[in-house]
Every structure is written in C-alpha cells, then in structure tokens.
UniProtKB/TrEMBL annotation:
GO terms for cellular component: membrane. Residues 272-293 are annotated as: Disordered. Residues 99-232 form the Fatty acid hydroxylase domain. The chain crosses the membrane at residues 17-35, 55-74. It comes from the Bacteria. One of its GO terms (molecular function) is oxidoreductase activity. This is Fatty acid hydroxylase domain-containing protein. InterPro entries: Fatty_acid_hydroxylase, Sterol_Desaturase_Related. It is found in: Membrane.
Length: 293
C-alpha cells in the first residue's frame, strides 16, 4: 500500500513517540516480572523467548507496514466523507471519550471473534505458549494481524474515529497488552483496585488457562467494562492453580517458529488433551467477580 504524505507524517510522529514509550513500558514490566514473579514457570525463558521473538518480528513489521497505514488511511477517508462522529458537533472531551470507548470495544469484540473457529487457527498460536510473560504479549501470528485490518480499520472508520485518536489508542493498546500478559505479581489489594477499570496480569492469566470456561472469559484489552457488560468476567481462580496453554498442544517440541507459522493450515484440534481428557476445575468458592491471589 502506498501511503499518502499525510499518513506517513502521522506515522513518523507515531514512531517518534510510541517507540520510546513502549520500550520504557516493556523494561518496567520485565523488571517487575523478574523481581516479583506471579506464576511458576514450566519452561526456562531461554527456550521460549527466541520462539516468541521470532514470531513477533514479522508481526510487528507487518503491523507497522500494513495495519497502521491501512487504519490511518481509512480514518482519513472517513473524515473526508464525514462518516459517523464527524457529523456530530460534540464538545472535544465528549468526542475523545466516545472515540476511546469505541476503539476499546472494537478491541474486545475482535478478541471474541478470534476465539471463533476460523480465526482461532491464527489466535491459538498466541495461546499455546506454555507460560505467560511479557514475550507472550508479542507472540501473534502475522496472519492474525492482517485479518484484523478490515474489522478494526473498517468499524473504526465507520464510527468516525480521528486518525490521531486511533494512533494514541494504539500506544495504550500495546502498553496494556505488554502489562496484562506479564508475569508480574502486583499486591492483591492494588490489583483489585485496578480491575475496577483495567485488565491486569491475574485477570488475563485466567484467559490463558487450559480450562475452556476460563479461556472464554476476560477478553478485554484495556478496560474491564466490556467483560462485565457481556458477562464474560471471571476472576475468582487462584493463579497457582492455573495451567497456561491449550490442552491439545502440550508438547514443547512443537513450539518452534516454523511449526507455529504453519499452524493456521493444520486442522483444529478438539479442546482436550492428546489422551482425550478435558481439563476441568471444580466451581471456585466466592463470587466470580472477586479477584483472588
Ligand atoms: Zn485470546
């Protein structure tokens, strides 16, 4: 795609701001998960990180070269055509809040679609990581990122989100993705307070559980509001009882960059271990909305 000068100007500005901000967030999160780990690791970092970084590299380059220019271009088209919010005369703070809520709801709903059979072919590459830490937040198949362009770009443009808001949200989206995938043990009282608004490491850890009911929970990216509204909020599972991954993909020997890049072409496997057993968990004590250690 050839970018118009305006698209490339906006993206150069994005690069100048987003790169240092996201680098600082990544370092802070990494220090947090090294100093105060949340869940016990099942595999050493040295085995997983090369794989996760190997998958992340093409996805990040693809995101910068396709997803971001396409989304910015679509939002600029929407501004010229005066779609959606462009037709309303809203005060600036109301307009900005509406745009940010739309962007985060689009992220939530896209994540739910990723768990439907066709898109799960791509998204399972992210979920079959056998531990979860900062590097899991970068481990996405490039096909998943390409598939998101029509939905994330299209809905955002139709609603009339401005390109500047879109790029500002993208920085928040990436920072929150790094944070909630991290293995950083925050004090439980602090994390309970944060979950009134934001997705946190314990909350998202439950989404990466091998128990199907738990994977079908906590789809939010930045705000927890959408999971509460859609009744997909489930946080009363102790972190030390979680097994991270997908039960049909327990073999670390399959966790190679070349296998994971080919995985979308392989048939879907049932939600069960290779021996046919299905991971389950007895109902947890306490309300489903009460975050536990
Ligand atoms: Zn997911």
């Amino acid at each position: 795609m050839s970018a118009s000068p305006r698209v490339s100007t906006l993206l150069r500005r994005f690069d100048r701001w987003a790169t240092p901000v996201l680098a600082v967030v990544a370092v802070a999160v990494f220090v947090g998960e090294v100093v105060r780990p949340l869940r016990r690791r099942t595999r050493p970092r040295g085995k997983r990180w090369p794989v996760n970084v190997g998958l992340a590299a093409p996805s990040l380059v693809g995101m910068r070269l396709t997803l971001l220019p396409a989304m910015v271009g679509l939002t600029q088209l929407a501004a010229r055509q005066r779609w959606g919010l462009h037709r309303l005369r809203l005060p600036e703070p109301v307009r900005l809040l509406a745009e940010l809520l739309v962007l985060d709801y689009v992220a939530y709903s896209w994540h739910r679609l990723l768990h439907a059979p066709f898109l799960w072919r791509f998204h399972r590459v992210h979920h079959i990581d056998l531990d979860m830490d900062l590097s899991t937040g970068w481990r996405f198949h490039a096909g998943e990122m390409l598939a998101s362009i029509p939905y994330r770009g299209g809905v955002t443009a139709l609603v009339g989100v401005r390109p500047g808001t879109l790029l500002a949200y993208e920085v928040v989206f990436e920072a929150c993705t790094a944070f909630h995938h991290s293995n950083w043990r925050l004090p439980i009282t602090l994390e309970r307070r944060l979950t009134h608004f934001f997705v946190t490491p314990r909350v998202h850890g439950i989404h990466h559980s091998v128990v199907h009911r738990e994977t079908q929970s906590n789809f939010g990216v930045v705000l927890t509001l959408w999971d509460r509204l859609h009744r997909t909020w489930r946080v009363n599972v102790p972190q030390q009882e979680l097994t991270i991954g997908v039960p049909a993909h327990p073999d670390p020997a399959e966790d190679t960059v070349s296998h994971l890049l080919r995985l979308p072409l392989e048939p879907l496997r049932p939600w069960a271990r290779p021996n046919g057993s299905v991971p389950e968990r007895a109902p947890q004590p306490g309300p489903i909305s009460r975050l536990v250690e």
